[in-house]
């Protein structure tokens, strides 16, 4: 079994005064050199992964990174309101969503672009949210993927409620003598190290444990919550918290695609057997800024970024494919060209989207028509009409004073 630690700076920050040394195993299958190590718990869950599947995982991870780069460029060019980079977290995201069934429900936070793409959301559809054109960006029912949640941690309660409902439905069907077909549903709630300390997450974990809800709490510990380092967020690895609620917590190298796939498969099996929730803490790193509105040079050292740069999850899989499976350069070149084409098409689609109309905001307040909202909408249109009339009169008088 390989029990490893992350880069030095992270571990040093853990030796913060008052920190409790943890003996919790940090699982890893694909090491920093791209070599597969044995792990008694996780190895059986990765043993049957084929080269074709590894190539799929590589394609998904690199596509996410390429689209991510394009998202930053589009925002810098004024075409998106904001962009939330995922660079560095591709293995944690792709590795955890790939083993799910389409019928499993996913509750993301706001950085899970690779999760969304793997679920089939077209990149341009996701961009609608970041262009301010939609409050959600995609149809949650079509992809079984809830809209992004910016209110930290609140999606964990939604996920637990959904999971409780799913297992109660199944039980009711069984009791009535007509059991539901297919595997029991599993639910994943994604959140970060920062969100993990929100009150809602505590409440969600208590409920999930009490009702054996089939929910996987998947934490991407990317070491930062905007400018707050993990050492301030928690004195212990977050996976250790699960024991306090009465369920299993796994700590895995989040830059190791095989480790993440195996840990997730293990957890999903447990959920489907009705053995309650599981928590996975995937230790990874946010290589870029928190968002395009953030400048990480203000609060973290270049040295730390360089250390984690050597643990790049994509590079690790690339080395593994090349050295262990003899995948040739043509494959990597083809994938890069395909990803470029997807990014180009996404850019064209985004630029073709007309800018949002402010008046449409009123349509998203309630699902049903509401007299108060209708009155406010009419008042707004009336107000806008006033500007048009004034502009017209200015034109006719030739006394434009400018905007
Ligand atoms: C309830 C709430 N409090 C504060 C914020 C502001 N906020 C947005 S992102 C963020 C940091 C979250 O860090 P983490 O959970 O580690 O996720 P990451 O951004 O690193 O993916 C904060 C404090 C918010 N969105 N919601
Ligand atoms: Mg974080």
From TrEMBL:
Q: Which GO terms fall under molecular function for this chain's record?
A: branched-chain 2-oxo acid dehydrogenase activity; magnesium ion binding
| InterPro entries referenced in this protein's UniProt entry, alphabetically | Alpha-ketoacid_DH_E1_comp, DH_E1, THDP-binding
**What SUPFAM superfamilies does the record point to?**
Thiamin diphosphate-binding fold (THDP-binding)
- State the source organism's domain of life: Bacteria
Q: Which CDD domains does this entry report, sorted A to Z?
A: TPP_E1_PDC_ADC_BCADC
Instruction: Name the coenzymes or cofactors required.
Output: thiamine diphosphate
- Example GO biological process term? branched-chain amino acid catabolic process
Alphabetical keyword list: Oxidoreductase, Thiamine pyrophosphate
Q: So what family is this one in?
A: Belongs to the BCKDHA family.
Family matches, as PANTHER family? 2-OXOISOVALERATE DEHYDROGENASE SUBUNIT ALPHA, MITOCHONDRIAL
User: What's this protein's function?
Assistant: The branched-chain alpha-keto dehydrogenase complex catalyzes the overall conversion of alpha-keto acids to acyl-CoA and CO(2). It contains multiple copies of three enzymatic components: branched-chain alpha-keto acid decarboxylase (E1), lipoamide acyltransferase (E2) and lipoamide dehydrogenase (E3).
Q: What is this protein called?
A: 2-oxoisovalerate dehydrogenase subunit alpha
